[in-house]
Amino acid sequence: MSREALTGSRIRERRVMAGQKQADLAKEIGISASYLNLIEHNRRRIGGKLLLNISAALGVEPTALTEGAEVALISTLREAADEAGLTGPEVTRADEFAGRFPGWADVLASTQRRIATLVRTIETLTDRLAHDPHLAASMHELLTTAAAIRSTASILADTKTLEPEWRDRFHVNIDQDSRRLADSAQALVGYLEADPETTPAASSPQEEVEAFLEAHRFRFATLEAAGHDDNAIDALAQAAPELQSAAARHIARNVLHQVALDADALPITQLAAAVQEHGPDPMLLAQHCRQPVGRILRRMAAMPELRAGLLVCDRSGTVIFRKSVDGFSVPRFGACCPLWPLFSVLGHPGLVVRDRLEQLGRGHSEFDCIATSEVQSAPGYNMQPLVQSVMLILPAQGPAAQKLDVGSTCRVCPREHCPARREPSILNGGV
Amino acid sequence: MAKHVVLVEDETNIAEAIRFLLGREGWRVETLANGSTAVDVIRKVSPDLVILDVMLPGKSGFEILKDLRADPVFVDLPILMLTARGQARDREMAEGAGVSRFMTKPFSNAEVLDAVRALTATTPSTP
Fold first, then answer.
1. DSSP assignment, residue A322?
2. ipTM above threshold 0.90
3. Fold entry, domain B4-115
């Protein structure tokens, strides 16, 4: 999302709060009411002198109008400050920094994101070294052969009076083992060099997948048409320039399989017609289309007109799929806010939860989140099923009786006295 | 009577080298290339020393070690373990399971002989 994207909404909000008419404000700052209307609906980018004029007319700081859009940037800056151990009064002034030096702030934030990515790459590589069974087996082979050669060679070298039978025997052994050592050393080098694609340099597999899905706008015409077709899925995954790593292609194929299954069972045109008739209420749609709620949620995320986000997590709570939506931030790495309905339904397959959510911070965007958890594995007697939980994030429609304040992740969440807090927030002083 | 060692090692060339070394020192060496029968054989022959590889077909060196230590007869039996994985975790596991000595490959012959001498010097000689 562009940083200016929500500035218009903030202007409108402030103007309405001040009880001022659109036409009056437009006149005061010397623009046409229709132009102000475009700005307020985020159809025109705004900055510079006009922003200063509007903020002066509304009696607010310019940053108060833009900062709503800068949540992600500022929380990244705060993360950077926290990781660098920044203390003192400047800690709370990330927003001021971003406001005064937007270019530098972007540089710092993108550097911070890159560091997070690199840290993850290093962790992946370390994991690979420590847990890669092939590598462990190769090392074992090398050391074992080296041990055999060392023992045998030193017997040959150290034993003054070695019977000819033993000597011949050991010569044969050492010859065998040295060949084996050469072969396994070669195989190991080959293994280490052969597979550069498992070490993504720039981003995590999850991010590659999201970029891939984004490029297709979460919609795959070939799968909608062909239905479940492994060849079509492989072709899509192989052809995607975004999918750099083998891991990303693996994840993408899983996602596409689900898309194909869903498209087979509920073509998007059928769902679109149902939405026309019943509105975007997943429960009504599920009843009407006779489809599981989880499928309805996934399919609704593939309708761009709904501007919905989607999250899927597995039984461990790990987010395995995400479609981002402006104003609802999902931490790139690490743990999400446990208050999300996505997680509250995990232990209750079949339960559907609907909540009005606001992510605390500066976005002030509200969402209707519908979550359900469904069994994902094939059934077996006396087997605990694997479950997946799905949450659709719809921009809020109309008022709601209750609102749930949630965060994105504890470190950047200002909520006080939160029973679910895992670690202190770095937003000391609040927002 | 010659001292008796059971050597459980699936690498035949390593087993052969150790057999030669210990044989020259006056040991009677019985080698096993498979882990699954090791505990039974050791019960039967009641050796003075056991040398165990960790990665064995059939049954791992750790399992054999645990089974032996669970038997009161073998609580004090000197057991030397050989591994090609020098990780601290393996050593801890072996020590937790009651190994007498732990050695990582590739070892030198002198190290093996020293370990064997040290282990058998501290135990009372077999009746």
1. E
2. no
3. Rossmann fold (3.40.50)
